[in-house]
Fold:
Amino acid sequence: MSGPVTNDPSPHEQRLAEVFVELADTLIHDVDVADFLQSLTEHCVELLPANAAGLMLADEHGRLHLAAATSSTTRDLGLFELAQEQGPCVDAFTTEQPLLNVAIASTNAATRWPAFTTAAAQAGVTSTSALPMRLHGQVVGALNLLSNRHDPLSATSLALGQALADVATIALLNEGSLREKTPLSKQLHSALQSRVVIEQAKGVLAARAGISVEDAFVWLRRHARSHGMALTQVAAGVVAGELRLDLDHTLEPPAPEPQTPGHQAPRHQAPSATSGAGTGSSLSSDAGAAESDPLASTSETVLAPLDLEILRMIAAGDAGAAVAHRLAIPITEVTLRMMLIRAQLGVTSTAGAVQVARRDGII
Structure:
């Protein structure tokens, strides 16, 4: 007689189990919300056939804010979606219903989100799925899955994505009860404020050490984990000048993230706010976006969608602080982006940049 048949789990199934154990652990112990949400988006890319993921949370007034993203490209696209007040996450949150496998090039998507689909296509996105973060009728945000593939996500993948979103929601709700029953609205506010501090720290460390913003985040998180500190605590220390991580370590490009067997991690080519790349960026290196016309030199083809939005807001009379507040980004980033915009348009003043953009009919 033959021996008993064993059905060993595949490497993907094993990793899936490990991730859910990790996420479930946050329901028992105090959780670093900022690090947890970032890890969640990274797990989505690791476990699902998606190239990027972003997560938005609502504040106490019901306004969405970007809370985590897997790359600076995804981050900029999310901020652009919020600035335009149109896009998959906005609709999933508003309607409390998922939007599944929406083709960016479809007539329906272009009609529904004209500005967002243009920016998404420029970033190499071909399809998007937005999943509401909800529990017991309470919606606190939305999870966005972005792909540069032409085949839709399977029902199994979408169900897994929704499960990850649900776990995140439960963790956020539970975190509020772990710390003296903090109301959910205050907990979400704390999570969103943490993101602002982290973004500031990324910019400070990147400028100080001469590295990319994405590498700066890797070092912030690495320091937090190796020293048993909250990511927000490390970020606040960097911003205040109390921590100088570039002096504590010999900064080298971080090692690439490990890949799950059978799934190729996306190779993001997102320019950071300090990179100076101005033609937008692909979701990944094999996005297959069409080449731009080499003769085109208007500001619309030179500037990334988020930079165009910032320029439009400034042209409309918004001060830098107002732009930063509306986009929930540091004022230093607005200033830096305007410096890059002026350089990309070949002008020396913000007024000159506005004049060029008006000449090209984009604001």
